[in-house]
Every structure is written in C-alpha cells, then in structure tokens.
C-alpha cells in the first residue's frame, strides 16, 4: 500500500508518495502566495491553496497515484478558520500565524480571566499570532456577522479534513493551539474559557488524535488530486508535531528544530510546566507535551536579500555570500539585532526588529551575521528554559531548508553542548508514522 502525505506550509505545499517501508517514491511542491492586508492582516485564499495542491498532485506519476491507499497531512498553525455549515468559509480566507490584527484582545483576555489564570489553563499567555482564540474574539468584537454564519471553528486541519471527508474534528495539537483547551491537564475544551467569552461549545468539534483514520476521501477532492476516492484519511495535525514523529522523537527530552520559512524549536516533555517565556502545547501523542518557540528564519533571510543584496543572484547569496558572513563573524561585536522581523509571538507587547551599535565601520556582512545569530539565540534561550523541566538529549534533530552546513556550523556555535543531526522530510514522514501508530504499526 502507498501513502500520500501532504505538508501544507506557510508559503508552499509539499507532498510525497511513500511505500510501506517509508521509502519516498515521488515528490512534488507548489508555491502559493499569502495576502497582506491593512491592519496587520495576513491571510491565504483557500482556493489558491487547494489549486496549488491539485497542481502538485497531478505532477506525481499517475501509476503511483492509482495505488495510494491512505491520505495523511499536516498544516502550519495557528491558522484560524470559520466554517459555515455547508463547509465553505464564513470568513473568506485562512488567517495565518503571521496575522496581528488581534493585538488588543490580549488586554481583553487579561481583564476577563487574568493572564496567569489563562496561562494555568491554556499553557500560554494570550499572544497575538500564538493562539486561535485571539482571532475568534477579534471576530466577535469586530465582525460578529462572521460568527453568525459560523458552524465550526478550528485551525486549518479542521477545514482540510472536512473538505476531504465531510467529517468534523479538531486534532489534539491544534486543540491546545486554539487557546480554549485545558492544555495543562489535556482535559478537553475548557468550559471556563468558553463561558467566560460567551463562545458556543458546539463551535468546537470532537478532539481526535493525529493519525487516527477518520472518514473516507470524497469523490470531488479525489478527482482534484487524481487519487482513488473512498480511501481512508488520517487526522492531520500541526507541522512541528508531525516533524517530531518523522524524526522518531516520541519521548520526553527529545528536541526538534525545523528551520525553514520560520525557525522553530520544540522540546518534548512529560510534565506540563508553564512559563511566560515559551508556549506549552500538546504533542501528537497523548501524555506528552511540547515546549515550543519560533522566530523569523527564512522569512528574515529573504527580506535581507531583497533589501540589501539584489546585485547578486539568489544562488550566489545562499551558497557563497551568506556562508562567508557566518565564517567571518563568529563572535559578537558592537552590532546587535532585535530578531522581530515577523514580530514576537511570545510577547504581550508589539515588538519590531532593529540593529543597534551601527557605526561607519559596520558592514552589511556583519549585519547579516548578527541577524542570524540573534534569531538562533531566541531558540536557544527556550532550550535553556526547557532544561529546567526535563533532562534533554544532546542531539537536536534538524530539518528544513536552512539545514545546510553553514547554518549547522552557526547553530552549533549558538547552542553550546548540543550537536545537530539533519533528518529529511520530517513532516511528511511524521504524517505516515502517526497513521501507522494509530494502526499499531509505529516504526521507531
């Protein structure tokens, strides 16, 4: 039997066909744009996302597509969606984790519940871009007609799964990422929070374990993907949670660094310890949590290239210029950088990026190296906090587009006492591992 595993990223969809031995038989990728709107709104058109998915799928060999027996997937998140009863979106687009329209909701939550009480239930402070509740309450206050049309609320996996199968669900990981779930106890939807904010309990679907088979692929999406209708579809989840499973990280103390458009770190723990300095989230496995943090990553590097280095090709920038900057600026000088080009999803205040210590002696080479080092420091600081919670492995699994020798060298300088092991295709492999796990076939 073959598996089709789909990874819905922030800027592209990637998919692979794998066999029972988890060998990749074919792979495709298709970019899609996000939409920047006034008011710090960042969204994705769902039809653009699914069109890209169809394009990528139909470039896979037809003879392999015909043999697919299970479909599984992961998505970026938070990615709030408001879904009407007929399965269309009551608010027309998918709202991404880069969206910051809901900043004012932090004060509202603090007034209604208190930030420390909220932390004790949801596992996080109410950060804009960090939990779906922020967008839900923003809609309640600013576009109540959206909620009047809404039948279910979730993140992107809820919408994807319903579109593929007609079934309603919220996966275990995204339940905690919505910020209305008892993350610290893994106890289900929080009646206290739902009632405090006058939210309908029925908006939030039954919570399912990632990888659990739920429903069969409907004819219309099967035709779009060019694969058999009626095959089982596994419950999808967050990309980092899937990546942990794809790297065979299935117990407390193991660490994952996904370095792509965003640079993210996740440490698995077996006791739910909260801290304002990180997110506490469910992992894909019940009884295990993750300590999580993120920073700009590839988004920041792309921005630097566009603003300062367009006289060179992207290949020259990536393969020659960037590694040389890392090599020549291994120690800190006078120039420092605040790593908040995409804001800070772990702050109650609005943060922006800035260089400090610039003089006529400063160069763009040093500015780039300083930017990269500062982004790694955000992640290392969270790893240090996690060390107070659980004994950790000394090897960090690394995946994503920034898993090059130059970045590995930089990371090992910035993470003293740790080494990095590159593992490929973690999210797409993790989707299959989860599907196998909930059928008694987890490979470790």
TrEMBL record:
<dbReference type="InterPro" id="IPR000577">
    <property type="entry name" value="Carb_kinase_FGGY"/>
</dbReference>
<keyword id="KW-0418">Kinase</keyword>
<dbReference type="InterPro" id="IPR050406">
    <property type="entry name" value="FGGY_Carb_Kinase"/>
</dbReference>
<dbReference type="Pfam" id="PF00370">
    <property type="entry name" value="FGGY_N"/>
</dbReference>
<dbReference type="InterPro" id="IPR018484">
    <property type="entry name" value="FGGY_N"/>
</dbReference>
<protein>
    <recommendedName>
        <fullName>Carbohydrate kinase FGGY N-terminal domain-containing protein</fullName>
    </recommendedName>
</protein>
<dbReference type="GO" id="GO:0016301">
    <property type="term" value="F:kinase activity"/>
</dbReference>
<dbReference type="InterPro" id="IPR043129">
    <property type="entry name" value="ATPase_NBD"/>
</dbReference>
<keyword id="KW-0808">Transferase</keyword>
<dbReference type="GO" id="GO:0005975">
    <property type="term" value="P:carbohydrate metabolic process"/>
</dbReference>
<feature type="domain" description="Carbohydrate kinase FGGY N-terminal">
    <location>
        <begin position="2"/>
        <end position="246"/>
    </location>
</feature>
<comment type="similarity">
    <text>Belongs to the FGGY kinase family.</text>
</comment>
């Amino acid at each position: 039997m073959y598996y089709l595993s789909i990874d819905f990223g922030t800027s592209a969809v990637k998919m692979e066909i794998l066999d029972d031995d988890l060998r990749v038989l074919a792979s495709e990728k298709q970019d899609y744009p996000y939409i920047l709107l006034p008011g710090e709104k960042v969204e994705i058109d769902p039809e653009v996302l699914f069109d890209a998915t169809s394009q990528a799928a139909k470039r896979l060999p037809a003879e392999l597509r015909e043999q697919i027996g299970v479909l599984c997937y992961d998505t970026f998140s938070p990615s709030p969606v408001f879904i009407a009863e007929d399965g269309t979106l009551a608010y027309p687009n998918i709202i991404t984790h880069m969206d910051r329209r809901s900043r004012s909701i932090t004060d509202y939550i603090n007034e209604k519940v208190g930030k420390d009480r909220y932390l004790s239930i949801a596992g996080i402070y109410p950060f804009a871009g960090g939990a779906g509740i922020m967008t839900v309450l923003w809609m309640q206050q600013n576009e109540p007609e959206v909620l009047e049309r809404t039948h279910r609320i979730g993140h992107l996996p809820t919408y994807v799964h319903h579109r593929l199968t007609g079934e309603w669900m919220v996966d275990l990981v995204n339940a905690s990422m919505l910020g209305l779930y008892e993350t610290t106890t893994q106890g289900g939807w929080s009646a206290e929070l739902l009632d405090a904010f006058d939210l309908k309990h029925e908006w939030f679907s039954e919570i399912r374990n990632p990888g659990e088979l739920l429903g069969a692929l409907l004819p219309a999406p099967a035709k779009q993907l060019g694969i058999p209708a009626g095959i089982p579809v596994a419950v999808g989840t967050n990309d980092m949670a899937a990546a942990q499973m794809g790297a065979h990280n299935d117990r407390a103390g193991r660490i994952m660094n996904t370095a792509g458009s965003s640079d993210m770190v996740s440490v698995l723990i077996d006791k739910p310890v909260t801290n304002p300095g990180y997110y506490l989230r469910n992992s894909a496995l019940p009884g295990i949590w993750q300590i999580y943090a993120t920073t700009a990553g590839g988004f920041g590097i792309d921005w630097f290239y566009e603003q300062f280095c367009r006289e060179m090709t992207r290949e020259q920038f990536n393969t020659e210029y960037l590694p040389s900057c890392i090599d020549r600026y291994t120690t800190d000088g006078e120039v420092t950088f605040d790593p908040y080009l995409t804001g800070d999803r772990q702050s109650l205040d609005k943060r922006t990026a800035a260089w400090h210590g610039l003089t006529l002696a400063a160069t763009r080479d040093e500015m780039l190296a300083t930017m990269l080092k500062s982004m790694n420091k955000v992640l290392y600081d969270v790893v240090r906090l996690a060390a107070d919670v659980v004994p950790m492995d000394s090897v960090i699994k690394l995946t994503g587009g920034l898993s090059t020798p130059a970045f590995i060298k930089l990371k090992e300088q910035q993470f003293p006492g740790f080494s990095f092991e590159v593992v490929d295709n973690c999210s797409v492999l993790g989707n299959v591992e989860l599907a196998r796990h909930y059928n008694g076939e987890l490979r470790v």
